[in-house]
Amino acid sequence: MPVLASVLAAIIPILIYLYLIWRYDRFDPEPVSLYMKNFLWGAVGAIILAMIGNFVLSAFFSFFITDKQLLEHAETIIIAPFIEEITKGLFLLITVANRKFDNMTDGIVYGGAIGLGFGMTENFLYFITYGNTFSEWMFLVLVRTLFTAVMHCVSTATFGAFLGYAKFRPLLIKIIFPPLGLILAIFIHFAWNFSVSFEQTSFQGFLFLIGSIIVFLFTFKISVLNEKKLIFNELSEESLTGLIPKEHLNILNSTIRERKGWIDESIRKSYIKAATTLAFRKMQLKNSSGYNRLFYENEVNFHRQFLKGLLKVESNEEFNMHIPGSD
Question: pTM of the entire structure?
Fold first, then answer.
């Protein structure tokens, strides 16, 4: 097939997936720049490292496995899941240290971005290499777009979810959860590759991946709902002090906040961002120590002062609107 058709088939669906994942994190969307860095790592950095790792480990295995077909199965079923999940996950270890990385939702979002980047590049390489006829190429595009690329997304997002959950938890969880997440990511990848490598198990493989996708979406939804609850709880404390108006609590943690009319439009977006950030920084402050605790404490104080200034501006504008001749 023409290279251009393969490029478009590899890029367009993945960009749609990428946008949907970023958009679903509706209460605290991740910075686009950091999100795209993770995506590009999957598309370029992880691919290059995986190629090197796969080559080295395959060369090592070839000393013990002389049968060509058996070696190919080992490369697909054992080597690829192990190497690729590690190379994809490496950048997550850097991202999780970023102070903008808050929780499990962020792990899912960034991990998903890396997996989609990896899947996009891998799909392109497959599209231009295999599929000699149009029907074969179309079948390859459908399977890899709807399943294999999504598998890369789900597996790396799983590792990210475990990293995100552990970040602000006690030390024991920080030690145990990251390797557990990586093992589970490798298993998802292994199970898919194993099942589709043999005709008699391919149907079970599709069922397994569909089940994995359902669990992924359910976990993502629960994580986002937990963010909604966190925003309400943390800002409720601010409402008691008079900083956040009580009537805003059920607006700031819902999609209603995107509508106009509930607050002065000139400050609405800044208000939403500052209030949401304050809620997350308060959670981080409660679960941090040392220099990080000092950083989050300063962040909490800064956003409180910023919100006071915003709401004071709105109050003054409302007051002026009721004074004859104030215009």
Answer: 0.91
